[in-house]
Amino acid sequence: MLVEKVARRACTCSWSTPRYRLYSTRSQPSPPLQVQGKTYARDTYSNATPTILSKVGKNLHLKPNHPLSILRSRIEAHFPQFQHLNSLSPIVTVKQNFDDLGFPPDHPGRSLTDSYYLNKQEMLRTHTSAHEVELFKAGVEQFLLTADVYRRDEIDRSHYPVFHQMEGANVTTRGEGLARLEKENEEMRQRLDSANIIITDPTRETTATNPIQEEHSEEEARIISDHLKNTLNTLVLRLFGGLRKEGDQEPLQVRWIEATFPWTSPSYEVEVLYEGKWLEILGCGVVKQDALNRSDVPQKLGWAFGLGLERIAMVLFSVPDIRLFWSEDTRFLSQFNEDSITPFKPYSRHPECYKDLAFWTAEGFHENDFCEVVRDVAGDLVEGVQLIDEFVHPKTNRRSVCYRLNYRSMDRSLSNDEVNEIQAKVIETVVEQMGVEVR
Ligand code: DAH
């Protein structure tokens, strides 16, 4: 998930070095950005491209009979008492997305190479957690929020710069509130005990790296964590339990892993064993007192989680490429309907065509910027971008890279001429905007 991933990247990324700016016009002042009828002033942070902004408002999670919408409804059915929010604007402040949640000022997730900014103050949310504090502030105690989120990233079959997340949160007061959670714990535990599920949970032991909060007694921390775990284990059972093949006696397997998020402690990740592979489906934890104080509800306590819809939908609906979710082709859309989860039947796999591109990089080169240009020029016709070779010239110290660009359409055959034309445009644009030198 975001925090883990960007943290891992932190050692290699060059975000703190000065970088040239994509899409800035040096000679003329740029007009302000227009998104959904609102105007946003540009500044040196503005890096949201027209291609990305064109995705705002598509709301795939609300499209009837779309796999993402079907999955959303399933998950909502698991939380009947919660407020279901589906239409919050993807444009949030940097404060909402990062500061309110306790992200340190130098967190790599904030960098221009990882996130899309409209300007220094406003950005496209990188996760649905961006709304937690405002909702707690508004007095909402139980919510399930589904929305599009935006991240600059590599290009392959499971990464797309826009995807969908669901955020769930449940906060309450001590006394009656906690007593209710404890009662629900008992009911959920019984359900899990009689189900064909194996839950492996080494995080039951508190560790120094994943402590309970000093504001919570051991009993309070246990009730909240148990409620979070029981809620999500029963959700996994609902989503994955019914799907196994007939006669399959193998129990469903779930495991809990220690994690770190700036606004929760303890924090966890959940993985499900599906067709022989462990699939990470969500991050979660007990909301930190800090975040609740910032929400003006210091007396409350509870949990939150965030899950990625595409990742689960790709597995449950056997969708082989994340771009398919954006397809307008009726051969894709007509296959699904609201009341069942059925595997996607590929209508035809059109041939792929790849082109290699080698160049000397300029100072501050970042792969995500390169992918952005490719995405902007080629749109959904690009399936993957892969670094296949790199070296540093021993004398000049210049770095040379070679990328393989895979082109494939989801719904038709591409001609060689068409691909050559796109590739030529990619080359022209990277040379112009990134100052690289093609070899
Ligand atoms: N927002 C996190 C991400 O995108 C996921 C997450 C983790 C959400 C922990 C939460 C949470 O609410 O408590 O990686």
From TrEMBL:
Catalytic reaction list: tRNA(Phe) + L-phenylalanine + ATP = L-phenylalanyl-tRNA(Phe) + AMP + diphosphate + H(+)
Residue ranges occupied by any FDX-ACB domain in the UniProt entry: 348-439
Location of the protein in the cell: Mitochondrion matrix
Keywords: Aminoacyl-tRNA synthetase, ATP-binding, Ligase, Mitochondrion, Nucleotide-binding, Protein biosynthesis, Transit peptide
GO biological process: phenylalanyl-tRNA aminoacylation
Annotated EC: 6.1.1.20
GO molecular function, one term: ATP binding
InterPro entries linked to this entry: aa-tRNA-synth_II, aa-tRNA-synth_II/BPL/LPL, Fdx_antiC-bd, Fdx_antiC-bd_sf, Phe-tRNA-synth_IIc_mito, Phenylalanyl-tRNA_Synthase
All residue ranges annotated as the Aminoacyl-transfer RNA synthetases class-II family profile domain in the record: 72-343
PROSITE patterns associated with the record: AA_TRNA_LIGASE_II, FDX_ACB
Cellular compartments per GO CC: mitochondrial matrix
First-tier enzyme category under EC: ligase
Primary location class: mitochondrion
Top-rank taxon, per record: Eukaryota
Biological role stated in the UniProt entry: Is responsible for the charging of tRNA(Phe) with phenylalanine in mitochondrial translation.
Family: Belongs to the class-II aminoacyl-tRNA synthetase family.
Protein name from the UniProt record: Phenylalanine--tRNA ligase, mitochondrial
The species this protein was found in: Leucosporidium creatinivorum
